[in-house]
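Dear Dr. L.,

I hope this message finds you well. Following up on our conversation about the binding site, I have prepared a predicted three-dimensional model of the protein together with adenosine-5'-triphosphate. For your records, I am including the exact sequence and ligand specification that went into the calculation, followed by the structure tokens. Please feel free to forward this to your student if that is useful.
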Amino acid sequence: MNPASGLFVTGTDTGIGKTLVSCGLLLAARQAGLRPVGMKPVASGAEQNAEGEWRNEDAEALRQWSATPQPDYALINPCVFPAPIAPQLAAADLGRTIELAPIRAAYEALQFGASAVLVEGVGGWCVPLSDHLMQADLVRALRVPVVLVVGIRLGCISHAILSERAIVADGLPLLGWIANRVDPHCLVPDRVIASLDEEMDCPRLADIPFGASVHAAARALQGSVPKLFANA
Ligand SMILES: Nc1ncnc2c1ncn2[C@@H]1O[C@H](COP(=O)(O)OP(=O)(O)OP(=O)(O)O)[C@@H](O)[C@H]1O
Ligand SMILES: [Mg+2]
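The resulting structure of the complex is given below.
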């Protein structure tokens, strides 16, 4: 059996649609005949369930849209912190340090039952996970290519160009970017996207409308599945 292909979903910021795009990609990949599973290795912001276990919303959504049988929560989200603050700070408050080894082990376990593992990052690209670990180190350790979600709103042109430069400078393969029309108050979204089409070096893979459901996002992302998942 071929090893599962992997993909890391990053974004221009927190709250710009990484989870919507990730869930849409999981559904689109399933519709294309793959068995994808989602992963949110590091998550801050969680609630306790009836059993007293901490559960993060993104990880739950990724689990819900993964191929069945859905993996154990602990594999999808090995590092979960209650406080909705930067993960390095949330870990420090509990006297903990985020480390690569348990994340890599969970990723490898997910690969067993899946044909693709989609990993949603935390926040934007340049996120420290500990004093000695940047998010880019995690992506490098998992050896997965990257896709950048750009939340289309005022300020996103700079964020998108900076993110692309940083990903390339970190030596990681950037497969493309996805426009996500997250902001109904953006006055000229078409012109922002056209400007980014000019400025970005990597290709735009999709354009997700404002108000898209996971099913609508999957429709917009259908054509990008063969470009993003090596086994498609
Ligand atoms: N295309 C869209 N149209 C309308 N609302 C959207 C769109 N994409 C995302 N949203 C909304 O924006 C909010 C943030 O989206 P999402 O949770 O996917 O962002 P994120 O980048 O994953 O955030 P985080 O950094 O917390 O993981 C959510 O309320 C989501 O429903
Ligand atoms: Mg998210």
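In brief: The pocket of adenosine-5'-triphosphate (ligand 1) is lined by residues 11, 14-20, 58, 123, 180-182, 208, 210-212 (CB under 6 Å).

With kind regards,
A. P.
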